[in-house]
What we know:
Layout: H1 2-10, H2 16-44, E1 56-62, H3 70-84, E2 89-93, E3 106-109, H4 118-121, H5 123-131, E4 137-139, H6 143-154, E5 158-162, E6 174-180, E7 208-213, H7 219-235, E8 240-252, E9 258-259, E10 265-270, H8 276-284, E11 288-294, H9 303-315, E12 320-324, H10 325-335, E13 343-352, H11 355-358
Parallel strand pairs: 1-5, 1-6, 2-4, 2-5, 6-7, 7-8, 10-11, 10-12, 12-13
Antiparallel strand pairs: 3-4, 8-9, 8-13
Amino acid sequence: MKNFFNKIHYSGSLSLADLSVKFLLIPVSLLYLAIICIRNFLYEKKVLKQVELPAKVISVGNLTTGGTGKTPVVIEFARYLKEKTDKKIVVLSHGYGGKLYKKGVNVVSNGNKILLSAELAGDEAYIIAENLKGVPVICGRNRIEAGKLAIKKFGAEIILLDDGFQHLKLKRDLNILLFDCSLICGNGFVLPAGPLREPLSEIKRADKVIMVNKNPFDSSVSDLCNSFTSKIRLEFNKPAFYCSVVPDKMIRIKDSKTVENSGLKVFAFAGVAHPSSFFSFIEKSGFIISGKSIFDDHYNYTEKDIEALIKEAHVKKADCLVTTEKDAVKIKDLITDKKFDIDFCFLKVSLDIDTGEILNDIL
């Protein structure tokens, strides 16, 4: 189903059947658009009140469904702020995909120790906690209560809100909006006929915009990114920044050791919103993809999935299996104590971004 909607949202060439479904969805999208516009108007006119916390709040979010690189950007921001200021920083994640997602507010990490597994906290919240030492991480759907807990328990002075652009109830000091350079806004429709959570006009709420290029090796993507960046600067008068995601290193999951790039044949699999850039990164890193498998975003793997992946990897004569860091945290417990005849690895990525310029208002 997800692949079907991705096709409708982002594909330029649709079959007659796909077009028929899209047109059937348009009335639902118009209803959704009306509801969103009324809600946003009520917040704009202060009929609906925002809650202001006694801490600086930085929101990192997007206008579309699926990944735009929010989590890596939040991690980068938290690291930078921890290094440049002596203020206490806490990250809030919604914890989507975790078993505790609908069960109140929970501390994923106290900054020194990770307290919840990826299965409980959700993959994104766990990755943030795993990559940030000295920065507590809290997950919960209720961002107000999560923020209050961050202040009460950890004395938070700066709160980083992962995926918070649509959470208008919480007032923020810096509202940062991300776009994926290769996808931008798809067909331009709001849900469910298109990928937009809100119309493009809501760019006006952003203080700053970051264009995330997750496929910097493709010149056509860069051209599309530059064109949309100009639109943001001219039509919305917003400062726009460029962020390039680049492959860093391949890491073996069971012992966290780096796997040297030696032209290995790999079987790649991913449970992320848009896996094409991940597969591209593997190839650009010098590895040869002998086979691949795609799962739903936030997919919860089972032992049967692991067995099936190993079997497929052997059929494709792969030297190892490779996945994303987001997927790695979800399969770690399934493979760590097992003796397989093939290794599981993940591709770590890094960001090229002008963090200081983006966060200068807060500093």
